[in-house]
Amino acid sequence: MGVAISIQDLSFTHAETTRPALQHINGEVEEGTFVVIMGHEGAGKSTLCYSLNALVPRFFRGEYAGQVVVHNVEVARARVAEMSRRVGLVLQDFEAQLFSTSVELEVAFGPENLCLSRDEIERRIDHYLRFVGLAEMRRREPASLSGGQKQRLAIASVLALEPPIVVMDEPTSDLDPVGREEVFSVSDLLRQERRTLVVVDQDPDTAVDADQVWLMREGEMVAQGPPRQVLTDLALLESCGVQPPPTVALFQALGWPGQPLTVEEAIALIRQHNLAQPRPLQSPAALTNGRPVILELRDVDYIYPTRAVEALSGVNLQIREGEFLALVGQNGSGKTTLAKHLNGLLKPTRGEVLFRGRPLQEIRRTEMARHVGYVFQNPDHQIFSNTVREEVGFSLRVAGMDARTIEERVAEALAVVGLSGYEDEVPFTLTKGERQRVAVASVLAAQPQVIILDEPTTGLDYRHQRSMMEMLRDLHRRGHTVIIITHSMWVAAEYAERAVVMKDGRVLLDAPTRVAFAQEPILAEASLRPPPLLRLGNWLGTSGLTLEAMVEELR
Amino acid sequence: MNIFLYLDENTWFHRLDPRMKIIGVLLLFGLIMVFNHPLYMAAVALGLLVLGAAAKALPNFWRMRYILALLVVFSTVLWPFFAKGPTPLWSWGRLEVSRESLMYAVAMGLRLASFVAAGLIFLSTTTNEEFTHGLIRLGLPYPVAFAFSTALRLVPTFAGAGATIVQAQISRGLDVESGNIFQRAGKFIPLGVPLFIYAVRHTNMLAMALESKGFNPGEPRTWYLNPQMRRADYLALAFLTVLFLAALFLRLQGYGQVLPRL
Predict the structure, then answer these.
(1) Burial, B261: exposed, middle or buried (Cβ in 10 Å; 0-12, 13-18, 19+)?
(2) Interface ipTM above 0.95
């Protein structure tokens, strides 16, 4: 079999920066194989992807050294449009890639650029829409599709150019679990077709099936090899900001034989070596912290004025002061709609919302902002100031506080999120993880009792996810009520005390986290699955939620 | 929110060639300009209503009902003061209303509503791409047409981001509902800056995606959309041309006019 991609001593420094984005990268990809690239934010993963289809150095200018050869074409000498026949690139932000008013025209765009005949374009639209499972959606407007469908459409629109190599830059990081499944089933099909597949992904689960895993750190390639070799070096993975496979971590911590990459492997090993006896799960007592109820939803229905669909129906929920609660469920299940009722951004169509027993209609929005802070998913939707200080102090200035109090509160909020000393930095130049923290600090500065965060870990690498969640745990310990909306099951499992599972605008399950994650059939109804560690925990009957707790129990 | 008016139906009107539709709607605009007698205008408006029903565009008429009603009402109330006719009905100082000016006003109301109706029928039956493709076939250079259609396409995307930004800043205590116009203008910064940066990032990403799919505006390309001028198109075009010329002829003969002006 031939070589599809060959990278020799590739270095690249973006124009107007000094730190190299890529340093002396070498690598070879055989035709028809599957490579997963992992690494922390800013490790150079995307830049490496762009160097495969000439976006580096054609679109992104800078200092380029070394050579990338794709099917005997030297990439740096080719134009992006020429490379598009050889390398299909699916970008991370699928929203930004779709621009047509119908699904079929989106797919037609690439083949039109290749000057193909109308019959051939027709054939490709037909074939690739069927391939990604969107044949029924042909006449739909892309904006009306779900996240997973949009990403599959983005993939189809690239496949329509019929490139032998497909590169996907974090294709699932903005998707809910169902969307992830949809995209992975497409990439499985691509592998069956023996196309060369290069995927950037944070999740060790994806890497398990790869032929090669490439691990990057600070623009350098630190490891290349089969998953069983790379994914079992826990110290190396941690140093690259990558989440180690939890089952491997568990076995290593307990000194058990074997390096299981999946839950199924782990169970087989435990049986084979008789490492532990499965036992019935001890359910922890129902949790009531005895503190007063701070927010309450009574029989809340909500119908969006523009769509006639019921986004919430008959929701009852009591949240007590000092709770740490996770709202989980698919996109469109009503999580965000529910959360927006808690600070009065949305008013219920029927039913009522109470804050400390007072109906929300009686409280001004600006006052609610001081009681209930809400951090939106994308920090870039709110950052507008020239300095971190101004940004964080915004809500205080609006409330008309004096300069000294503002200064104090800003310093305090920045200390909590771990950004002390960043006061004079320009927020736009910070990393995504830091911008996310600035957004949290700007909400914290108002000292709200309740803080709601929509997808606080989406788009962050493992290291930043951990530190974001540790920070929230710290806030929780200080007595704040913390409510997170999340797709990340391990985040919900490790940090939240209580999980509320939503489906079709209703609360499907509301229980202490460990109890909720033991109900695999009910979770499956909401298309959710416990994280790997808890799937193993459910089988073993352990009650711990974290790696440490499970190790303690099983030792 | 959907700002596009296109309704995905399959009527004979939808199937017409976009070139024909563009020329056709211009002819309709011409026809609407011909008469200023309310009865004649009513006939034109009724014709457009029938056309709208045939093109299954009535849901959009319903969606725009307030705008249509406002146009008719305002124009009927205001026009009489600006057009002078020979048969005075009522006067107060320099203001005077005549029988003819009143009729003219009703005709103008119908004319404005007809304009909107003709536009609505066009937009209800023509997608963004068909429209730009029609323009290209009529001689507009591809890069210009592409920029035009992409700009149209991005409006709802940016509107969606804008709505999220407003909510995010309200959650931080920004009060967008009170204050005078100058105070409100100051509040534009926390909304405008994130939107601007979002737009820059978004367009940059889009440019990368387009290039990665082999886009090159200067080079030849083929089209998936391939509208053909068929017999129905030529017939429709001929019919509208004859209708327009006949109307023009009538008007020049003095029919369909209450006042000797446009």
Answers:
(1) exposed
(2) no
